[in-house]
């Protein structure tokens, strides 16, 4: 037996922790993974590891994972050769576009796409040839308000200020649970240790959440907030900062602060309190504490993105950091300077250049809100979507009103999925094209280095050999592009491998040929534990991409949305509002087929305050029916004092009991899908992002 140690980043969440993976070559059995541990020499994660990383071996060895292209023939799945599959896709898509127009083909890209650099570099090599405006992704059920806010204020959707967690004295967290998520749009391995370090140096951590989350449990202060009420709380904070003279001058060039002050003058803490269910004096005291801290940072994440005023929330987060002098400041919110800088190398993007056909939802960066996907397939008429391409996504479980989407998928003329599994969505496909596994791929993090709490970079080579007959994701897209170009006569420009693109990006970047670092792919090969490029530092002014290179504090699109907020009313006293929740052993819908991640007690129950149970004649552990405007599910309810009264919590990504799903372990403990309850009509009107939090529901005995 020959043992080998490998070093690589875990790609399963945004923390990108460094791993040491031991493989053993066994005669007659090939190379086997024998150990996965945290890499203590990793320049960024310093040996930290979470349970997900250990399950990489389960993903690799999963007998349910597809290893060759599959074609659906009637109710059966049959293998098909790669070239035949490419030709079939090209033939069907070309015919549909010829008959119905280029927008008759839609695309959905799922969350794992951004964890795979080959997909990031090459998916558009094929998808761009389609010239369809019907492109959708998980962005609009997650973080679209982040990007739109940065686009409007700073000129680029990826110019996202990140909490300087290692130097701040006060961290205010809204709608985020980094102890479960490992940090999100804040790439931060070992976040618990970093949060406790704030406290150890005399600082303070405050969490605002409708549930006493794992992060709230270690915070200095936790405030319950009504789901969907975060904007009201943030307005009350900002209004207090202005009214009590708690602002500081910023070194940044800023336009529009006087307009902001005038626009929110009526949104006092007292006026906002009934909307967010936080007492006015607590709002005011929180503003005073934040302003009094030597350094402070306000951080809002998915819980404030996926609600009816998600963009307003993120605009207010930016303004609170700005007016207290904490934007672009050590200990406040800072922008990364990554080795491969997508801000420097791409345009600022665009917003609302076109709208969805049925509901008129705005595009952002060439994508439409996924809440509009089903209606674009179901609504007849010119421009109706007749074919769908899904890439590493499971929108039936991950997007609003999954049952409606199932109906839409069942009526398509053609569907192809680039995916590893026959899951709740891909079971409707005519073809499934599976790539190599993650450990059979090189890895470079093009996305999450953009959001890291330090400037870091690393490139990891594949640990396991590419199986004979298998293709990497990027090779699949090159094959599809070539076949489509031949079929349609379109011109196809030559391309290069993803690693070569990364080498170019490194050499042309801030730390490349013109710098003392001289970073290149060869450099990173020599540093398997990664390269630390230093702490974040103020850099926003020269990186601004607005037309006048000034921060736009009062974008007209956002100010126009204030009228919608001003009409907000507090919900009825007896109404229940549903929120989601995360768990460190899960990530959306794609980690429930691995024993190491689902073992132990079930984690997909409905959480509910004991008083809410009692008032409905329900008991702990009972099966209940949960109903919303769009659907009904049955689930076990668990009494929890961690829940705010009037709020229930159900994690999304479950619901694996659908017929035709070929995921053995997931089907064995399927849970119920929260997105059978979420409403495609409930969204942030400004951005089009789905409002998955604050869904009105009723709960009764099953």
UniProtKB/TrEMBL annotation:
Keywords: 4Fe-4S, Iron, Iron-sulfur, Metal-binding, Oxidoreductase. Gene3D superfamilies: 2.40.40.20, 3.40.50.740, ADC-like domains, Dimethylsulfoxide Reductase, domain 2. One of its GO terms (cellular component) is oxidoreductase complex. Residues 3-62 form the 4Fe-4S Mo/W bis-MGD-type domain. GO terms for biological process: cellular respiration. One of its GO terms (molecular function) is oxidoreductase activity. InterPro entries: Asp_de-COase-like_dom_sf, MoPterin_dinucl-bd_dom, Mopterin_OxRdtase, Mopterin_OxRdtase_4Fe-4S_dom, Prok_molybdopt-oxidoreductase. It holds the Pfam family Molydop_binding. This is Dehydrogenase. It comes from Pseudomonas frederiksbergensis.
């Amino acid at each position: 037996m020959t043992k080998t140690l490998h070093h690589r980043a875990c790609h399963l969440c945004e923390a990108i922790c460094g791993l040491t993976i031991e493989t053993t070559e066994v005669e007659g059995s090939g190379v086997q993974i024998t150990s996965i541990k945290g890499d203590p020499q990793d320049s960024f994660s310093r040996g930290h590891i979470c349970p997900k990383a250990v399950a990489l071996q389960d993903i690799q060895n999963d007998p349910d994972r597809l290893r060759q292209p599959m074609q659906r023939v009637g109710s059966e799945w049959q293998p098909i050769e790669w070239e035949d599959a490419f030709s079939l896709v090209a033939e069907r898509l070309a015919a549909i576009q010829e008959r119905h127009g280029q927008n008759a083909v839609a695309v959905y890209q799922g969350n794992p796409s951004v964890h795979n650099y080959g997909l990031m570099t090459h998916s558009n090599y094929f998808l761009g040839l389609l010239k369809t405006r019907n492109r959708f992704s998980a962005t609009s059920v997650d973080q679209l308000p982040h990007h739109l806010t940065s686009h409007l204020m700073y000129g680029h959707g990826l110019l996202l200020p990140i909490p300087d967690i290692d130097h701040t004295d006060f961290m205010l967290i809204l709608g985020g649970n980094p102890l479960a998520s490992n940090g999100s749009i804040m790439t931060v391995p070992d976040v618990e240790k970093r949060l406790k370090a704030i406290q150890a140096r005399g600082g303070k951590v405050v969490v605002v959440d409708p549930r006493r989350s794992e992060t709230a449990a270690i915070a200095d202060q936790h405030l319950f907030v009504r789901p969907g009420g975060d904007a009201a709380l943030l307005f009350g904070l900002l209004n207090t900062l202005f009214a009590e003279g708690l602002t500081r001058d910023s070194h940044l060039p800023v336009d529009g602060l006087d307009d902001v002050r005038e626009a929110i003058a009526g949104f006092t803490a007292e006026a906002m309190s009934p909307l967010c269910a936080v007492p006015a004096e607590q709002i005011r005291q929180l503003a005073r504490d934040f302003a009094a801290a030597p350094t402070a940072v306000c951080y809002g994440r998915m819980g404030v993105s996926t609600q009816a005023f998600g963009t307003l929330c993120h605009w207010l987060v930016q303004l609170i950091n700005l007016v207290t002098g904490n934007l672009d400041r050590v200990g406040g919110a800072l922008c990364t300077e990554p080795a491969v800088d997508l801000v420097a190398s791409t345009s600022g993007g665009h917003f609302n250049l076109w709208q969805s056909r049925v509901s008129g939802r705005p595009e952002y960066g060439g994508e439409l809100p996924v809440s509009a996907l089903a209606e674009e397939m179901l609504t007849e008429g010119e421009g109706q979507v007749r074919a769908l391409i899904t890439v590493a996504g499971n929108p039936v479980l991950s997007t609003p009103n999954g049952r409606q989407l199932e109906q839409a998928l069942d009526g398509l003329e053609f569907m192809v999925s680039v995916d590893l599994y026959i899951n709740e969505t891909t079971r409707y496909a005519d073809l499934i094209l599976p790539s190599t596994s993650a450990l059979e791929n090189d890895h470079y993090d093009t996305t999450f280095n953009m959001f890291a709490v330090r400037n870091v970079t690393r490139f990891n080579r594949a640990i396991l050999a590419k199986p004979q007959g298998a293709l990497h994701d990027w090779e699949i897209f090159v094959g599809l592009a070539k076949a489509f170009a031949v079929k349609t006569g379109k011109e196809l420009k030559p391309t290069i491998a993803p690693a070569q693109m990364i080498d170019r990006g490194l050499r042309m970047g801030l730390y490349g040929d013109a710098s003392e670092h001289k970073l290149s792919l060869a450099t990173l090969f020599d540093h398997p534990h990664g390269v630390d490029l230093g702490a974040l530092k103020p850099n926003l002014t020269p990186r601004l991409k607005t037309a006048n290179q000034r921060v736009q504090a009062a974008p007209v699109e956002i100010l126009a949305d204030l009228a919608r907020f001003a009409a907000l009313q507090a919900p009825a006293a007896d109404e229940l509002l549903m929120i989601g929740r995360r768990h460190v052993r899960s990530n959306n819908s794609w980690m429930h087929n691995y024993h190491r991640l689902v073992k132990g007690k079930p984690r997909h129950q409905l959480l509910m305050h004991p008083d809410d149970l009692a008032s409905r004649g329900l008991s702990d552990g009972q099966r209940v029916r949960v109903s919303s405007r769009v659907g009904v599910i049955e689930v076990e309810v668990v009494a929890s004092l961690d829940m705010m009264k009037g709020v229930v919590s159900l994690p999304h990504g479950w619901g694996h009991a659908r017929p035709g799903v070929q995921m053995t372990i997931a089907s064995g403990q399927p849970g119920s899908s929260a997105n059978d309850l979420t409403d495609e009509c409930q969204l942030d009107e400004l951005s089009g992002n789905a409002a998955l939090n604050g869904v009105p529901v009723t709960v009764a005995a099953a």
